[in-house]
Amino acid sequence: MTQDSSTNRVLFITEVGSAAWKMNHPLSDSDRFVCYLMPTKDILRGRMKLVPNVEYTDPDHYTASEPDINDVVLDGNSHFSAGSGVGPEKIDRSSHELGKVVNEVVKNNSNFLFGIYSPIVLNPIQDPSDYMEHGPSDETEWFSTFKYLAAQCMSKVVYNPINGMAVHNKIKYYDSGKDKGWRREKTARTIVRTCNFGIAVLEGRGFVFDSVPPLGDKESVEVENALVRLKAARDASALPARPTKEAEDDLREFLYKTRLANLEEDE
């Protein structure tokens, strides 16, 4: 894997995990989703760089460097960096190149939808008063357009990753009894919130991050009910069976133009 001194441009950073659902507590760590753009020149030259686990002195760029011991390269375009510390000081980052993000959107991968549509956007940052006076910045406009085009790719396929995630957590942690006490309730609430997110997409209500209150002695019933409601929403959904060719083409054309613009910037 070849590395050089050029940089990957950060396109957006969002907060995911419990904070996005307003279900975090004072000791919750921070989970961040990072989407970056690899320089088009590097792609054309066949070069690839790792995204390092470093604090960002420049919020718009990652500087290529050797990864540290906490770095995990999931594939050529995805990378996970585990933070250190306790609570909010511990920041875990899941970083993905734009091309990978586009491919996962077309698959309706819920983990990527969480990252794209999280209500907590850390970058690009724009003060509301500045937005009122000057309108959106180029970065804000780019992100808004990307989110719109990604939304057009939604289909009944979204049921599969949502249901898969919920059922996996139910079987591995809940039904097995592996999670106990407060962890068991946390798992139950995570399953319900995941299903509720999928239901909203299938019903055409957008990308909803609703908090799930404590379930008490109804947690088992609520977990089962969430899975039933999710399946019913899929069966009744007006979304297409899979992303339309037109929607996918529009999203990929946007990716193409973004890469061309980056190439022109480097000239």
List keywords for this structure.
alpha+beta; Beta Polymerase, domain 2; 2 domains; globular; 267 residues; disordered N terminus
Structure commentary:
The chain is of the alpha+beta class and 267 residues long. The chain has helices at residues 40-44, 98-106, 110-117, 128-134, 138-151, 159-175, 182-202, 219-236, 245-266; strands at 7-16, 30-37, 61-63, 71-75, 78-81, 91-97, 121-123. It has 2 domains: 7-152, Beta Polymerase, domain 2; 156-236, no CATH class. Helix content is 45%, strand content 15%. α2 (98-106) packs antiparallel against α9 (245-266), α6 (159-175) packs antiparallel against α8 (219-236) and α7 runs parallel beside α8 (219-236). The radius of gyration is 19 Å and the shape is globular. The chain starts with 6 loop residues before the first strand and ends with a helix.
Topology:
Elements: E1 7-16, E2 30-37, H1 40-44, E3 61-63, E4 71-75, E5 78-81, E6 91-97, H2 98-106, H3 110-117, E7 121-123, H4 128-134, H5 138-151, H6 159-175, H7 182-202, H8 219-236, H9 245-266
What is the first-to-last residue Cα distance?
Answer: 25 Å
Number of strands: 7
Write down the overall geometry.
globular
Number of self-contained structural domains: 2
Main sheet characteristics = 7 strands, mixed
Average pLDDT works out at 83
What would CATH call the architecture of the largest domain?
A: 2-Layer Sandwich
| SSE ordering | EEHEEEEHHEHHHHHH
Unreliable segments of 5+ consecutive residues: 1-5, 52-74, 127-134
Radius of gyration: 19 Å
According to CATH, the fold-level topology of the largest domain is Beta Polymerase, domain 2
Q: In percent terms, what proportion of residues is strand? A: 5-15%
Binned, the helix content reads: 40-55%
Using the coordinates above, name the CATH class of the largest domain.
Answer: Alpha Beta
Structural class, by secondary structure, is alpha+beta
The number of helical runs is: 9
